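Now for my pick.
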Amino acid sequence: MQLNRALVSWYFRAARPVTLPAAGAAALFVVAYSGRLKEAMFVPFAFVAMQSVLTAWLMSRFNSPAAAFLYTRGFTRDRLWTHRIAAHVLSVIAVWGPASLLVWLGVRSVIQDQLFDNPYYPLMMTADFATPCWWFAEYLLLVSAVDYGPIRRALPTLDRDAGYTIELGLILLLLTFVNTPWRNPWYFVPVSAAFVVASLALVIGSWRLHRQIEIRP
């Protein structure tokens, strides 16, 4: 399916109130945090979770006049869902990308060394290179989970808030996982696989349920 640039832009603009401040905050954290990035677990994950939740909420306000307008333009439900996910990933890249480049291009190392006189740098510069990849993996696991909650909430059923319960449970489990030492493969591999399976199940669920949502402007 070829993406419609105007439709992706529509969803991306909806998330702009979160994307722009988040990009600045991520860049500031990367250059100002004095410890090694791989030791910072809770704050980056909380940031990733908060941005993901708010982005999904802004893109999924199905009871707004804007949603009523968009859903009467002749797009199929599947096409709208695909473009919203694409715009969400684009929002993630707009925040994660600049912060990661500050690490990979050595800007963080120079600032920590020259401005903050941090004894870790530039010696530990390359030790930070893998950490942004873990952040991106967290983003990808959460994109589907946070999209499931508002979509299920828009269904005409009695258990509509169950999606938010599932979403909160997965976020708390992920928070526990990232804050637990996982040096042994016997722990890391199966738990990671379980989260991937859960994420895939939620993304398939959000896709299928999106076909049944009600638009109430």
Observations:
- The chain has a mean pLDDT of 87.
- The chain has nine helices and no strands.
- The first helix runs from residue 5 to 14.
- The CA atoms of residues 112 and 139 lie 26 Å apart.
